[in-house]
């Protein structure tokens, strides 16, 4: 159909080679148009001729604006205001991998660390800041979507008409997008620089944090990669961003191309009918390839060797599939080992963005601490004691795990922490392991610490890593790590 594609490329209505345009073709009955009606259609009217000399009159859809009604009518808060709750929250997001743990404190810092523990020795922590931000007032740079610290401005000052016009023009500019599993998604970018000096480049480490709309996103890290030497790119899921229509995933409309058979031509091209029939037959009987033509004209049966002899493309596809399965197996093994390390206490979890940080080592202790050049303070919130945990469950039956099929959280009780100055009693801490239902982000971890009553704490650890293992806990919240 060279005539069709030549007309579309040369026309002004749309470009069929653009992936952002989706079209369907409807094959309709005859349509008679006079010359005036054809002239009114302009470039939207084309005549298509198949290789069998079948001709069709095709009417192309009108070009539509890419700006949606929601975006055009939106007059709510800008994206900076929408994202403030995430940047002001007190807790961080974590991604745990087999060696490194990544800590993202939104708008403040990004670091990676590894802690080595040896019997009878102080823990050794290896850590690098991959970028630093600032928790003070943030605003969007006028030439990008990244955050930066800006000075306070005079609220009484008035913008000129030219400044307002330039601002409107920038708001209409297309947002940058990232391909996520085949979907083009706009993102909101935060640039963090001034990290730990890189030995290879001699420059501070730097990170680009890209926030994308995800209705269930809570700021967890979806993807982490080193884009170049000591420069990093982090993809973060956020439900907050979905409040702005410009950042929601776009559902591409499907435009209809209407093609009408001209005199002497079948309703649909005969070759198209033949191909569709073969596809239907193959789906119903994939072990055979034999067709019955719709017309009396014989169709040459494809040669047998084409369907039993592997081509180079087949071999490459098989190799790619085997590699994907191998990587999936390795990832599954790594996740199981990571969960085992967490539940046995050989891998501890840290959190906190204020003066006090907090840390939990399952089956050992929970604590909060502060460490800098002037101060090195540690307060233990509780230690693991199996007997006291069982007594706590007996006294508080509502804390026992629910039935396995309904279970989303398991609670562990840590007692006999440091004495509280206010109550004169030992501190206690309930550690809640919670399933974060986002199976595509198995390494994302969120920690948060609360103090519902004086010197009695609740430390919540949420991750998709726990979704499978929680069902294996017994009625006392004890785990069988052999499962």
From TrEMBL:
Gene3D superfamilies: Mannose-6-phosphate receptor binding domain. The keyword Metal-binding does not apply. Keywords: Disulfide bond, Endoplasmic reticulum, Signal. Residues 322-335 have a biased composition (Basic and acidic residues). InterPro entries: Man6P_isomerase_rcpt-bd_dom_sf, MRH_dom, OS-9-like, OS9-like_dom. It holds the Pfam family PRKCSH. The keyword Disulfide bond applies. Residues 90-244, 346-469 form the MRH domain. It is found in: Endoplasmic reticulum. One of its GO terms (biological process) is retrograde protein transport, ER to cytosol. Residues 312-335 are annotated as: Disordered. SUPFAM superfamilies: Mannose 6-phosphate receptor domain. One of its GO terms (cellular component) is endoplasmic reticulum lumen. PANTHER family: ENDOPLASMIC RETICULUM LECTIN 1, OS-9-RELATED. Probable lectin that binds selectively to improperly folded lumenal proteins. May function in endoplasmic reticulum quality control and endoplasmic reticulum-associated degradation (ERAD) of both non-glycosylated proteins and glycoproteins. This is Endoplasmic reticulum lectin 1.
């Amino acid at each position: 159909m060279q005539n069709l594609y030549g007309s579309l490329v040369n026309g002004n209505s749309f470009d069929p080679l653009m992936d952002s345009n989706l079209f369907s073709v409807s094959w309709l009955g005859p349509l008679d148009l006079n010359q005036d009606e054809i002239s009114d259609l302009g470039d939207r009217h084309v005549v298509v001729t198949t290789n069998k000399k079948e001709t069709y009159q095709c009417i192309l859809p009108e070009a539509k604006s890419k700006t949606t009604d929601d975006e055009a009518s939106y007059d709510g808060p800008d994206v900076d205001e929408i994202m403030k709750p995430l940047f002001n929250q007190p807790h961080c997001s974590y991604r745990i991998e087999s060696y490194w743990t990544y800590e993202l404190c939104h708008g403040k810092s990004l670091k990676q660390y590894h802690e080595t523990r040896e019997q009878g020795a102080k823990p050794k922590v290896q850590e690098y800041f991959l970028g630093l931000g600032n928790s003070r007032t943030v605003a969007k740079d006028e030439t990008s979507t990244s955050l930066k610290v800006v000075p306070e401005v005079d609220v009484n000052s008035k913008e000129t008409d030219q400044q307002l016009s330039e601002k409107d023009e920038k708001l209409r500019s297309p947002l940058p997008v990232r391909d996520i599993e085949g979907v083009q998604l706009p993102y909101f970018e935060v640039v963090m620089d001034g990290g730990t000096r890189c030995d290879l480049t001699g420059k501070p480490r730097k990170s680009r944090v890209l926030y994308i709309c995800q209705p269930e996103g809570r700021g967890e890290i979806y993807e982490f990669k080193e884009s170049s030497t000591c420069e990093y790119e982090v993809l973060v899921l956020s439900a907050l961003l979905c409040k702005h229509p410009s950042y929601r995933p776009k559902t591409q409309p499907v435009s209809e191309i209407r093609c009408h058979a001209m005199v002497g031509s079948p309703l649909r091209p005969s070759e198209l009918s033949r191909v569709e029939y073969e596809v239907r037959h193959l789906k119903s009987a994939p072990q055979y390839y034999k067709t019955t033509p719709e017309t009396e004209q014989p169709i040459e049966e494809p040669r047998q060797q084409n369907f039993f002899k592997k081509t180079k493309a087949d071999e490459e596809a098989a190799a790619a599939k085997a590699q994907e399965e191998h990587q999936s197996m390795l990832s599954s093994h790594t996740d199981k080992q990571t969960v085992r390390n967490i539940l046995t206490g050989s891998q501890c979890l840290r959190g906190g963005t204020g003066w006090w940080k907090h840390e939990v080592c399952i089956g050992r202790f929970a604590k909060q601490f502060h460490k800098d050049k002037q101060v090195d303070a540690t307060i233990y919130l509780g230690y693991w004691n199996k007997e006291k945990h069982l007594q706590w469950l007996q006294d508080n039956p509502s804390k026992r795990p629910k039935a396995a099929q309904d279970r989303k959280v398991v609670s562990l009780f840590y007692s006999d922490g440091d004495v509280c100055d206010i109550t004169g009693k030992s501190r206690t801490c309930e550690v809640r392991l919670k399933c974060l239902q986002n199976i595509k982000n198995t390494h994302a971890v969120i920690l948060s610490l609360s103090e519902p009553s004086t010197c009695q704490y609740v430390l919540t650890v949420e991750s998709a890593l726990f979704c499978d293992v929680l069902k294996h806990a017994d009625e006392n919240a004890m785990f069988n790590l052999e499962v």
